[in-house]
Amino acid sequence: MIDLHTHTTFSDGELIPSELVRRAEVKGYRAIGITDHVDFTNIEHVLGCVSKAKYMDDVLAIRVLPGVEITHVPPEKIAQLVAFAKTLGAEIIVVHGETPVEPVRPGTNLAAIEAGVDILAHPGFLTLEEAELAKANGVCLEITSRCGHNITNGHVVRIAKEAGAKMIVNTDTHSPKDLIDSDRAVQIAMGAGLTHEEAKRIVENNPIIK
Questions:
Q1: Is residue 135 classed exposed, middle or buried when 0-12, 13-18 and 19+ CB atoms within 10 A define those classes?
Q2: pLDDT confidence band for 24 (50 / 70 / 90)
Q3: Could you state, in order of their start, the residue ranges of all structural domains in the chain?
Q4: How far apart are CA 179 and CA 162, in angstroms?
Q5: Are strands 140-144 and 92-96 parallel, antiparallel or unpaired?
């Protein structure tokens, strides 16, 4: 299992990085992205903190990737913050997509894809044109296990398949109960409309981390 969208106490998660990583290790994770919520006001603090979680890399059988989830930033400012996150050493850059359960600004999906982020999280009712651009820019479209955000998983899969865009299963973990194993990830992907073979391929052959 590889999960590249999780949160800690450095934003709205319940666990400090060490406990999050340990619980993920018990679930059989091979890699985990710690991607706390950021905007221009806190990105330096958050990345400065979560980057220290790399201290576990040489003693645990799990790869820790510090990153960010750019959240509710005006679309016109997303590319600038993506570039800044890279200079700060973010290994995974996620943008909080236009989920129908939060008032995300219209245009966020497109701005994130144009900026070439790693993952567009819970992108809601993204368009075919956006998915085609995601394919061209190498942006992964998220299939999420998170309650609420996951109500558009079926739409995301249908549009992503039509466009030939890459997909990834993530948990958007905020608490211990949110972590899943690879079997559950396959079930979530199948529930969104993928075949068993397609779901296993997406879960086992992560398009970002090999």
A1: middle
A2: very high
A3: 2-204
A4: 29
A5: unpaired
Among 105, 138, 102, 103, which Cα is nearest to 120's?
A: 138
The SS3 assignment for 40 reads coil
| Residues 28-45 pLDDT 10s | 999 999 999 999 999 999
Q: pTM value? A: 0.97
Q: Is 2-204 a CATH 3.40.50.880 domain?
A: no
Q: What is the pLDDT of residues 154-209, one digit of tens each?
A: 999 999 999 999 999 999 999 999 999 999 999 999 999 999 999 999 999 998 98
Among left, alpha and beta (phi > 0; psi -120 to 50; other), residue 116 is left
Q: Which of 32, 150, 166 is nearest to 91 (CA)?
A: 32
